[in-house]
Amino acid sequence: MNYEPPSPPSPPTYASSRHRKQTKQLSVNNKQNSSRLISKLHTIQSIWQNDSKKARLTLKTPKGTAIDPVEMFKAHGGCTIDTPVFELREILAGKYGEDSKLIYDLQDQGGEICSLRYDLTVPFARFLAMNSAQYPTMKRYHIAKVYRRDAPAMTKGRMREFYQCDFDIAGSFDPMLPDSEVLAIVCEALTALEVGDFTVKINHRKILDGIFEVCGVPADKVRTISSAVDKLDKLPWSEVRREMTEDKGLDPVVADQIGEFVKLKGGPELLGQLEATRLSSNKSASAGIADMKLLFTYLDVFGITSKMSFDMSLARGLDYYTGLIYEAVVEGSAPPPPPPTPLPLSATSPPPPSARLPASETSASASPRPAKSKKDKAEEIDESQIGVGSIAAGGRYDDLVGIVGVERVFSILLQKEKEKEKDKRGGIGRRTATEVFIMSVGDGLLIERMQIAKELWDAGIKAEFAYKVKPKLPKQWETVDKEQIPFAVIIGPDELAEGNVRVKEQKGKELTSGDGEKIPRGELVAWLKERI
């Protein structure tokens, strides 16, 4: 899927003498221009060096510009595709909740009613629905422009035309494995960009849906009430409650019950608090809580749990999310919210969960800050950051492929075995740049595979592993062969007991043989770097 531009053709051997002279003159001019530019830079550098009042000019890139997102995505097995800048209006309709009003509609041209794309996710789902046989599983990144009919606010980074950078994992996998890797990629990117301290707020749509069910929200109001809850990072609870009750017609008693849940935030310990409430008897909420327990286990392996804030007010307004949702925010990117005001409980309301913020809360809004003078605020608040809000966001969208007009995601993926022969690429080339695939023999050894993957990513080695708790060995070898991955790192109970791993270099079916080479676990990175 990586499309490399063709190499420029070699100059023809029958070029005329005049053409050769022009080419030679052009080369001389380019060299002269380059020499003049270098000379100017050295002159400027010399002037600055002689001026004791000015810092020396350093010929290097500035901080924060060294990140190459494409290489980072490739390190996680990503490949890229491109989609049209406009889509059929019916493809985009009904996917964005209240934000659907921000879609740019185009006039009828040739019998098709189209709209400019609002994001890169729905077009990707349309691509999967149309190409399900060829791409039953895919890790895809895409950097392109999107369009929103919004009120521009340049200081807040809100524009009508802007770039989005997406990374999506499509396929049928064991719960929360791809979700945890996506969060790891978010943390890698924001750390490399040097945006400063950041927090990734996470929640689960199934937990939110369970809250709405146990509190008595009518089914036809769930999405509109969810959209109101999502405004709690910008508005005080009193304003959100007013919108629920006055604008959207929700029973005030129901709104108060919702408020006692959505004020909660913390870390993994919050799951225990939720299980001690009525949510434990709700099917949707219980499923979401189980997913989040698993997620925190995997986040611990990747070493990023400290960056997470389990925030029950996070709802995400887009209608297509079905599981994990997240938003990354820069600390201090908005003025601190007012302290929460305790609400009186209705006599008919059941006992609510504790609304006290856990001690492990890392969000900038965890506790009210002392009042400051206008002068202090002017000195401390970066005006360009006020109201910027989230700088990265996403979530799980299991049903979106079905929504865009073909069968559901899982129905598509069940055709993998039947269609896999059609996906043979032969000599076309590799779809991904993955250098190492980590696989297990016998027991699943999921945590060990994840630990090795994290170690390789940190060392700049492009690596993947199967998103299955107990993957089958033939399926793992099938991935290595299909994607033409150069090295397979194999672990099993024997290797773990010995403190080794086994590495097998793939040289094609005809040349690859044997069980591979045993390498001490601590020498794996150095061994691979010598050979990749």
UniProtKB/TrEMBL annotation:
GO biological process, one term: histidyl-tRNA aminoacylation
Subcellular location: Cytoplasm
Keyword entries, A-Z: Aminoacyl-tRNA synthetase, ATP-binding, Cytoplasm, Ligase, Nucleotide-binding, Protein biosynthesis
SUPFAM superfamilies in alphabetical order: Class II aaRS ABD-related, Class II aaRS and biotin synthetases
Region (Disordered): 1-33, 334-381
Biased composition (Low complexity): 356-370
Enzyme nomenclature, EC number: 6.1.1.21
Pro residues: compositionally biased ranges: 1-12, 334-355
GO cellular component, one term: mitochondrion
Reaction catalysed by this enzyme: tRNA(His) + L-histidine + ATP = L-histidyl-tRNA(His) + AMP + diphosphate + H(+)
Residues annotated to bind L-histidine: 119-121, 148, 164, 168, 316, 320-321
Domain Anticodon-binding: 435-531
Sequence ranges of Polar residues compositional bias: 24-33
Gene3D superfamilies assigned to the protein according to its UniProt record, in alphabetical order: Anticodon-binding domain, Bira Bifunctional Protein, Domain 2
Principal subcellular localization: cytoplasm
InterPro entries, per database record: aa-tRNA-synth_II/BPL/LPL, Anticodon-bd, Anticodon-bd_dom_sf, HisRS-like_core, HisRS/HisZ, HisRS_anticodon
Sequence ranges assigned to domain Class II Histidinyl-tRNA synthetase (HisRS)-like catalytic core in this UniProt record: 70-333
Family listed: Belongs to the class-II aminoacyl-tRNA synthetase family.
Descriptive protein name: histidine--tRNA ligase
Species name: Hydnum rufescens UP504
